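Entry, Tuesday afternoon. Goal for today is a structural model of the target with zinc ion bound, before we commit to ordering more compound. Inputs were pasted exactly as handed over by J.K., no edits. I checked the ligand SMILES twice against the vendor sheet because last time a stereocentre got dropped in transcription.
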Amino acid sequence: MKEFKFTDIYELVSIIDRSVRYGESFWNYNEGIFIESSTKFTKDTLLHLYIVTRAMNYHSRNFRKNGDCMDEESIKDWISLFRTYGVHIGAYDISDEDGPYNWLEENDDKFEELFCLMADEAFHILFYNRNFLVEFNKLVAETVKETEYPSEKLTGKGRLKRVRIPEWLRTAIFHRDKGRCVYCNTDLTNIVNTITQKNFDHMVPLDLFGANDPCNIQLTCESCNKSKSNKDSSTSFKYQLWWN
Ligand SMILES: [Zn+2]
């Protein structure tokens, strides 16, 4: 268990959701981490990386453009947010002529620390939303296509090699998708029905430059998995309701 604050998280989620809808690619990111996280299933996912880098880029641009108009109140809001997440940040010098942007520049490691903590919470919300995840994975695929990988990570066709999906991720996907095929709703729990087979499917296929990332995996039955072509980036937009 982990304690979440959910303070200002929906604003961050909204920035990330809009960024994906407007096709804002990975930019100004750590390529080494991208390579590591797209070639094997890591618990710090590509979505964590995207959230932190987008938040850094977004706020850096915002502070640069609108820093002059930021009043003491908005700085106080930031300081309060840092306090909520337990990140210690240097005091803001009101007499500093370069203003808030300078404060951000001097403390960019603290902002990154804050966004890493917030990314865990934003991930918690977005990981349930397959509508979002399939669009996010299409963005990821564009970067995978442009990235130079070590040759041992690639197939002869220049796609990422398939790697084994670890048990912790199979369990998480099974629970997120409530033990049912996301397409046809077949019960895959094996509690009553004993002849079903679980498949862990890449929403954006490796063949279309999909990544080996936790956010790209969904639960399907054998037959839906076989009928989904490796040229088809999709999920279903159906979800189990809490009640009818
Ligand atoms: Zn199915």
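The pocket of zinc ion is lined by residues 181, 183-184, 186, 220-221, 223-224 (CB under 6 Å).
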